[in-house]
Every structure is written in structure tokens, then in C-alpha cells.
Specification:
Layout lengths: L14 H8 L7 E11 L4 E10 L3 H14 L17 H4 L5 H14 L3 E8 L4 H4 L5 H25 L5 E7 L4 H17 L14 E3 L5 H17 L3 H11 L14 E3 H5 L4 E4 L4 H7 L1 H6 E4 L2 E4 L3
Parallel strand pairs: 1-4, 3-7, 4-5
Antiparallel strand pairs: 1-2, 2-3, 6-8, 8-9
Helix pairs in contact: 2-4, 4-9, 6-7, 8-9
């Protein structure tokens, strides 16, 4: 009679596969993190980020993006982009106001209780550039790797850990194939061995890389990170939409607290908006002044200050 090994069962399944088949999926839903990047050339600001939603909502979000395009008479094949190139449909043919289109697109994320996480670097102030004289392509790749780590830490905790959810990361292509491979390789090591601050128990697999033109949620991630980076850079076009995005920021959950109250910026920095180097964070507080004046994060609710 054959003995059972540590990872085998008499029905031929591994114990891991058997547990997966037996798991009640309703108790362990999947959350999906969609990521894209944005680079402001004159300011040398790099942003990487997007939003987290329930996996069960992804199909509905894609359908809603398609309906949004139809309502604005935009062909479905046209990619929504925060900063479209000169020959893009949104610059050459679109008759509406892009600000209104983008506000409605961000509103779709609010409908699905999305949580926004964006990491941003001021590359000119990073030590590799200031001390070692790195060129900006090298600095961008280094920063993108760091940004993935910061975002993954917040995705694992608190997004996934609070309900023991499983997590999946889907990211847009990087600007170069070699850079993309380097980021995925680094991400694989991070997810396998953890960071200085976080081990990863719930993120299921290395980031899956896709093509934004064929992935409507990635197009929304492009808008999210583009609006944040543009606002940091002082653009009035980003600032006009920033509060719509900021209301979706992942906020400090104050785990184990019985009651709390916090300024909005204090709750968002380090969670929904992660900024480096340290001195850059003052710019984050500046752009969130309107949110600080209007809202307070208290007892797990965003409450108007006038209430």
C-alpha cells in the first residue's frame, strides 16, 4: 500500500489544489489592483499607481467604460488617456470637453468604491541623480521599482489583510521591454521574500502586464495617476479634477482604534499618496489643502468639516 507524501492525496490532488477547490470563494474574494504610470517631463515627476476594486466588478467596469465612450460618441477602440499624443482622437476629433469626460470616468470608480493608491517621485531630488549623476531613464526605472514596492505594501496591508482577500495586480506595459522585465523580476523577488516592512501572504502572483488600449480599467488607472502627477506639477487641468480622485484615496485605517479623527492629508499621505523623497511630501500637503478644509477622516468615514 502506497504511503501518502506530505503534498499528495489518494485522489491524486496536491493538498494545496484540494484546499483551493474546497475553499468557499464567497469568503475569500479577489481584489484587483490596476496600475499605470505617468511622467511629467519638465518637472521630472514620476508617478505610478491606480486603483483597487473587487474582482467581481471588473467586467462591469469595462462595460461602463464602453458605455461612457458611446455616450460621448467616442469609438470604443479609442483609448482614454490623460495626456494623449497630438494625433490622438481626443485631440483631433473629440468635440466635448475632456475635463467633463474625465470627471465622469473617475465617477465610475466612485460607483464601485475603488481605492486609489499612487506613488510619486521627484526624480531631480533623488540621491541617484543628485549624488551619482544618473540619467533620467535610469532614475525612472529605479523609481518605478521602488514605487511598486510601496504600492504592493499598501495593497497587502490594509487592502487585502483586513478581510484576508486574495489580490491580483494588472499593470500597463513599461516604456521599454528591458525595463518591463527588470520591474517584473524585482516584483517577483519582493512578493516572494517581502520588504523590510511587509511580508506578502495575499498577493497571488507577480504583476500581469497588459496593453492599455485593450484594457479599459488600465485606461482609468492612466487617468488617475495622470491627474495626480499633473496636479503635483502645478497644472490647473489636473487640479480641476484632483479632489474627485483624492476622495478615493486609500486612507489610514487606524487599525485597532476605537475612535479617531484625522486631517485628510495626514490620513492620505503614506497610504493613498506615497511621496519621495521626504521633502516632496510638503507638496502633497499643499495640493490636499482643499480636502483638508472640506473634510475630516473620522471613525472610518469621510465627513464634511461643516457637518
Amino acid at each position: 500500500m502506497a504511503s501518502w507524501g506530505a503534498t499528495s492525496r489518494p485522489d491524486g490532488l496536491s493538498f494545496g489544489r484540494a484546499r483551493a477547490r474546497a475553499a468557499d470563494r464567497g469568503l475569500h474574494p479577489v481584489k484587483v489592483l490596476f496600475l499605470d504610470d505617468s511622467y511629467h517631463r519638465s518637472k521630472k515627476y514620476l508617478g505610478y499607481g491606480g486603483f483597487v476594486v473587487d474582482g467581481s466588478d471588473v467586467r462591469a467596469i469595462a462595460n461602463d467604460v464602453a458605455e461612457l465612450k458611446r455616450s460621448w460618441k467616442i469609438p470604443e477602440r479609442v483609448e482614454l488617456k490623460w495626456s494623449p499624443p497630438p494625433d490622438h482622437y481626443l485631440r483631433t476629433t473629440f468635440k466635448g470637453k475632456r475635463e467633463d469626460l474625465y470627471r465622469e470616468a473617475i465617477g465610475l470608480l466612485a460607483d464601485y468604491s475603488a481605492q486609489v493608491i499612487v506613488a510619486a517621485h521627484d526624480l531631480e531630488e533623488c540621491y541617484g541623480v543628485k549624488v551619482h549623476g544618473w540619467d533620467f531613464p535610469r532614475a525612472k526605472l529605479w523609481a518605478a521599482k521602488q514605487q511598486f514596492r510601496y504600492i504592493a505594501e499598501r495593497f497587502e496591508r490594509p487592502c487585502l489583510s483586513q478581510a484576508a482577500d486574495a489580490g491580483l495586480v494588472i499593470a500597463d506595459q513599461y516604456e521599454s521591454k528591458a525595463g518591463e522585465v527588470a520591474i517584473v523580476r524585482d516584483a517577483a523577488l519582493v512578493l516572494a521574500y517581502g520588504t523590510e516592512f511587509q511580508r506578502f501572504e495575499n498577493v497571488s502572483i507577480i504583476p500581469l502586464v497588459t496593453i492599455s488600449a485593450f484594457c479599459p480599467p488600465i485606461q482609468l488607472a492612466d487617468l488617475v495617476v495622470g491627474i495626480v502627477v499633473s496636479t503635483l506639477a502645478g497644472s490647473p487641468y489636473g487640479a480641476a479634477l484632483f479632489d474627485d480622485v483624492a476622495k478615493l484615496f486609500l486612507l489610514n485605517p487606524h487599525e485597532n482604534a476605537e475612535s479617531f479623527a484625522s486631517m485628510f492629508s495626514a490620513a492620505a499621505l503614506g497610504f493613498g499618496l506615497i511621496m519621495f523623497p521626504r521633502d516632496f511630501r510638503s507638496r502633497g500637503r499643499e495640493i490636499m489643502k482643499g480636502m483638508d478644509d472640506s473634510y475630516v477622516w473620522s471613525d472610518w468615514e469621510l465627513k464634511p468639516t461643516s457637518a
